[in-house]
Design brief:
By secondary structure, the protein is mainly alpha-helical. 70% of the residues lie in helices and 7% in strands. The chain is built from ten helices and three strands, in the order αααααααβααββα. The chain has a three-stranded antiparallel beta sheet. Helix 2 packs parallel to helix 5. It is elongated and about 125 Å long. It starts with a helix and ends with a helix.
Length: 246
């Protein structure tokens, strides 16, 4: 089963579970979802009405945890650890995996030093083991470990949940890209027309040159014929003159 299909099935499972529970009973399900080794998307769970009802209740911290796993990073958790529940080891691992996805969204070449700082990893061996065993083997990223340059070159990274306001930015980016593509297409079409017109001009110029060459050839041929006739006439006259003299 590929990762996308497995994600879809897990999302349906947790959404259905959340829809049948009261808000006060949701926190164990949130811990289970954010600890699951194969689940990396949480926006659908966040959109369940009973989950939204956690806001302002004594269990609202678990709504914040779910939002953290949907949009945040390990650094975000450390900066807000004082007001969030302590994470279990599986949640820590999951949040660090999600952190790699966030970094991969922003850059396709990730320096080891940046990764070690963001993931709280103390040495290169530990970092490479994490990237291989917990990221690439799981299927959420693909890339190349460059020990010489001390960086991870990202070739593929699974997408994370869209952050609030990110959809509008993406639509604007796509709109700008479409406008740029349209302008580029117009420019290409104009260049094709120009090339076609230059080709026609080149053909016309070539034909004019060929016609001129033919005219010159004909002119030279006529001149040669005239000179030849004149030569023959002169030769005949000279012979006649010699015969008279004799």
């Amino acid at each position: 089963m590929d990762i996308e299909q497995k994600q879809a099935e897990l999302i349906d499972h947790f959404v259905n579970q959340a829809s049948t529970l009261k808000a006060s009973a949701l926190w164990p399900l949130i811990i289970e979802a954010t600890s699951h080794p194969s689940l990396f998307a949480f926006s659908e769970i966040l959109s369940v009405p009973t989950v939204s009802e956690l806001q302002g209740t004594e269990n609202s911290l678990y709504l914040d945890v779910l939002r953290l796993f949907a949009h945040g990073t390990w650094t975000d958790y450390k900066n807000n650890a004082g007001r969030l529940p302590q994470l279990v080891p599986d949640q820590v691992l999951k949040l660090k995996q999600l952190t790699v996805l966030t970094l991969a969204e922003m850059n396709k070449v990730l320096p080891y030093d940046q990764l070690m700082q963001e993931l709280d990893v103390t040495n290169v061996r530990e970092l490479e083991d994490f990237l291989i065993n917990e990221c690439m083997y799981v299927g959420i990223v693909r890339g190349k470990l460059d020990q010489l340059r001390r960086c991870f070159e990202v070739q593929f990274a699974a997408g994370r949940d869209l952050r609030p306001g990110q959809l509008g930015n993406m639509l604007q980016t796509l709109s700008n890209w479409l406008a740029t593509s349209d302008n580029l297409l117009v420019s290409i079409q104009e260049k094709i027309k120009w090339a076609d017109s230059m080709s026609e001009l080149d053909k016309k110029h070539r034909k004019d040159v060929e016609d001129r060459v033919e005219e010159v050839k004909k002119s030279l041929s006529l001149k040669l014929q005239t000179v030849s006739r004149q030569t023959l006439t002169s030769e005949g006259t000279r012979r006649s003159t010699l015969n008279l003299v004799e």
